[in-house]
Amino acid sequence: MIRTLSLPSGPHHIADISQAAGRAVSDYPYVVRVLLENLCRNRAWGRPVTEADIRGLLDWQAHIGADLPLYVTRVILPDSSGLPVLQDLAALRDAVAARGGDVAAVDTRVPVDLIVDHSLQVDYWGAADAAERNLAREFERNAERYRFLKWAQQAYAGLRLFPPGTGIIHQVNLEYIAPVICRVERPDGVWAHPDFVIGGDSHTPMVNALGVLGWGVGGIDAEAALLGQAYSFPIPRVVGVRLTGRIRPPALTTDAALLITDTLRRAGVTSCAVEFFGPAIASLTVQERATIANMAPEYGATCGYFPIDGQTLAYLRATGRSDEHVALVEAYGRANHLYRDAADPTPSYSEIVEIDLDAVLPSMAGPRRPQDRMPLARIAEDFRSRLPRPLDDGGFAAAQAPGTGAMDHGSIALAAITSCTNTSNPAVMLAAGIVARKAVARGLQPPAWIKRSLAPGSRTVTRYLEEAGLLAPLAALGFDLIGYGCTTCGGKSGPLLPEAAREIEQRGLVAAAVLSGNRNFEGRIHKLIRANYIGAPPLVVLYALAGRIDIDLAHDPIAIDPAGAPVFFHDLWPTPEEIAQAMPAATRREIFVDTYRTSAAGSSLWDTLEAPTGPLFPWDRQSHYLVEPPFFRHADAAGGLERLERELQGARVLAAFGDSVTTDHISPGGEIPADTPAGRYLIDAGVAPNDFNSYVARRGNHEVMARATFANIRIKNLLVPGTEGGVTVHFPDRTPCTIFEAAGAYRDAGIATVILAGKEYGTGSSRDWAAKGSALLGVKAVLAESFERIHRANLVGMGVLPLAFLPGQGWRQLGLDGAESFAFLGLVDGVMEGAPITVEATGPSGVIRFQVQAQVLTQAERQLMREGGIPASVLRACLHASGTVPDFNGETQPRP
Fold first, then answer.
1. Which CATH class is domain 367-597?
2. Which residue, 27, 524, 602, 896, has fewest beta-carbon neighbours within 10 Å?
3. Rounded-to-integer distance, Cα 868 and Cα 862, Å
4. Where is the Aconitase/3-isopropylmalate dehydratase large subunit alpha/beta/alpha domain (predicted)?
5. pLDDT tens digits for 68-79?
């Protein structure tokens, strides 16, 4: 299976997938080809990959769900999930040292890139120095976290850090980090192989646009992979998406991405690998593909893959990769059947979904989910219809706003051009600048109450906007550069204008936000804004000018100019010719070379930051940012499925939810309200509300994060109908309390808890704290109608058992009301053998018996559940590697 590829730079060994298959591989999806190469190469490198693993993948359609022992090329992390990962590794080193092991066994075994991009908050805006001031405030607010990251930089051999001010993780990955094809020197010579990356952020699939296979995982999965363990992954269904037609003006790539998201979410591609093909592909640039691939978690897929082709090579050249490396990518891709030519036959897919890009219309998605796409003409009517509807029916339960003021229901309070999804695509960014230029020429301005910001995904964007003469018009409308980071899309929108916040609160307004992001889940963007819409950057500018979400942009005047003339959509919208005229500024190779050759905006602040050194981190016992994680303290104690089955006897329901509960609902990432358990904990610790920072910034403190779990201000626990927020009732006394208080009472009484949920439990971010927090609260199992892939895996990783109701059933359909106590029969066989598990739910009116299926999908996951989760597994592995192994009492003994 190994042969040598001759290149101008010398011979390169490759794992030949056609030799492994013993036949032509043209009918294999490209995703399967990359996975096959990974197995063949790692078997050749002496890793524990078997012939049976390879044979199973060669007949992949018959073995969907079978376990694949993959080895990642690299791991990429944002600071939001990366800091907890490194914090866990620091605690793991402490645990190994305490048991007499060698802390050197705890180190990165594959390259790890961490980009600090999730901590920037929009404190300052609408001024030329906003970016500089926000960056300074970021360092003030996060100095303790950043000192820890600098310690990690010297403590872990394979860790590379990109300081604040560099850009957003996925755009930096696309523009600079991703090699597409890797070149590795080994004792037997030089090898070439495909890049394969997992990331601690769910939008890692954005790099799929470049022909790189990769996807998001929880931090607990990333920990095991960067320690060099095999990454266990089930053979996926591969859904081919045939794109036809073309995106016709006035629609843009963002509109196509929203159509694709809507279509694929309806088609049910959850946990599938999506691979794009068809006649429309060749004309889509990598930047346009990236907008589509970035939304993979929104349509529920593991990845949204575009194979290597001519567009890949053009992008690599344009972004400053060397000619030698581009030649390697093409030569390897063609030699090992990973390069796609237009004339190549269509692979055999599990299913094919047809999407006609001719049907794309200018759209926004909202007000709560990215898959809820609406053409512009429908948005106003939909918003108005939701105002009086009850919360449980998707409405806002809003009365007519009392009194009068500048704002009303539907007024836009926040408009943000941000997010890797769109700021990586110069066509839509240039379009926003052209709209701004035309609006300025007509003398238009957004209403004063709207907070506006521009937060690109990399410094290349401001370079080309400035060269095209479009940065100034955006600033003239209040869209000044505020920094480089996720900001509003990740819940770091900062405070609204005081007058807007006051009017929203005092008059009970349902205000709106418009942003060019990928997520608009409830409570994510800002706690005071209940209606959130995502769309293309130029639409963000147009809605800001209109000042309202309940306007038909397609037909109504957007504004009245100083001369009294109405200004319509077509007056401001850019033509394809205008965008094409500005495009050369965005495709100059020198911009990318210069950007990544010069220091990031935050480099000087980063370089002067003092940090500890040495192999072990010196925890500050007075810190409320960085607290030693508890996950390894008892990780080697006796445990496993038998204990879990015992603990679950007599379990109570902590909370019960409907469909589409997101990881934002389970573990919010935005600001910390003072009147929540987390806020009260910080106040009791002497932290003033002004210094709370965000939930993301406090992820290094498990005391905060346990109290944050299920504490989203918009979460709806159906045990307490008609309410929002982290409240529940304690059984059997039915005492109203917070979810954190109820969890503590159950835990003190020795009673395990479970969660009941509907479909698509755990959609959204790859937020491992949604699983970690659940485990800390004492949740032992989640019973849902279906799970999203990453959160399901995270639950397994923390030893929390995900259980699915049988098709057509759910807790509501079975007549459960949450007051029951639960017992689980046959749990061990259900997890290890896949047999149905019988549940007995005993309530006041008797016993309801039903069956559930454990969502533990691979042999590796079954072993994790037996061991009690990843913390126990990695601790055992590190102790074994350092010469000691734990016994079942948590003591250590010499390795035989």
1. alpha beta
2. 896
3. 10
4. 60-547
5. 999 999 999 999
